[in-house]
Design goal:
alpha/beta; 5-stranded parallel β-sheet; two-stranded antiparallel ribbon; 10 helices
Length: about 260
């Protein structure tokens, strides 16, 4: 049931789950003010914009594009902040997504996220850490998986984002500093120029995204330019998330960067 003057904000990320969650929300809140909002990092695969344009036609509804006025892209964030990632999440996410979203949202918004049926625990943790947000999860409510969403998108005549077709489990930036060894070896094969660029960023900042641990628990940094091409297993690594659920609720950068 709609509330008078309520605003529904669907956070669109160019992934199949957020795309279908948005479509469902448009049907549920057809009598309300629905905003579909995309935070552009300017570092995602260019095919994401094709996917977004196709979804706009599918929805019959405009997708608002937001972007940082301070940073051009993730590389600009890394260079200017001298920071990659820590326990609070990735600095690029904070600057190019979280801060943009915090500035956009209103306290009384209904916020729609594309958590799928496998992410009940993540969704509940998000609610606990962001109790002030009126979170709605239409995919979980309907028991819809990411595969279900991909099928819905394809039945609508929309080709899934190129990142999926290249073997990635997400449509986020290829150069994600939260990626583990398997992710970065896939980047090495598919986007060698991005792999090389991040390798240079690591050396410039003297930080390494990946680590190994000895039997005594001692941590050893593994720089990308030293990474064994066979290291890691992308299929078993956690799917990378990029948004308000990345890291803890507060954006803190006093801890060590990766």
């Amino acid at each position: 049931m709609s509330r008078e003057n309520e605003r529904v904000v669907c956070w669109f990320s160019c992934g199949v789950t957020s795309a279908v969650a948005t479509k469902i929300a448009l049907d549920i809140w057809s009598d309300s003010e629905v905003r579909i909002v995309y935070c552009d990092t300017r570092s995602e695969h260019p095919d994401n914009h094709r996917f977004m344009d196709d979804c706009e036609k599918w929805y019959g509804h405009e997708i608002e594009r937001l972007g940082s006025e301070k940073y051009h892209d993730i590389w600009d964030v890394f260079e200017k902040t001298r920071y990659l990632v820590g326990v609070a999440g990735a600095r690029c996410t904070a600057e190019l997504k979280k801060k943009i979203r915090f500035a956009y949202q209103r306290p009384d918004d209904i916020q729609v996220y594309g958590f799928d049926s496998s992410e009940n625990v993540r969704a509940e943790r998000f609610r606990e850490n962001n109790f002030e947000i009126d979170l709605r999860t239409p995919l979980i409510d309907r028991g819809m998986s990411k595969k279900d969403c991909a099928e819905v998108v394809m039945r609508a005549g929309i080709e899934v984002p190129e990142m999926y077709r290249l073997g990635f489990a997400h449509a986020n930036c290829p150069a994600c500093p939260k990626g583990q060894m398997g992710h970065w070896n896939l980047v090495r094969r598919v986007f060698p120029d991005i792999f090389e660029r991040m390798s240079k960023v690591e050396r410039d900042l003297d930080v390494a995204i990946n680590k190994t641990y000895a039997g005594d628990g001692e941590r050893k940094r593994v720089f990308l330019d030293e990474l064994d091409p066979d290291a890691g297993n992308y299929e078993t690594e956690p799917v990378l998330e990029c948004g308000l659920s990345c890291g803890v609720q507060e954006v803190l950068f006093g801890e060590e960067s990766a």
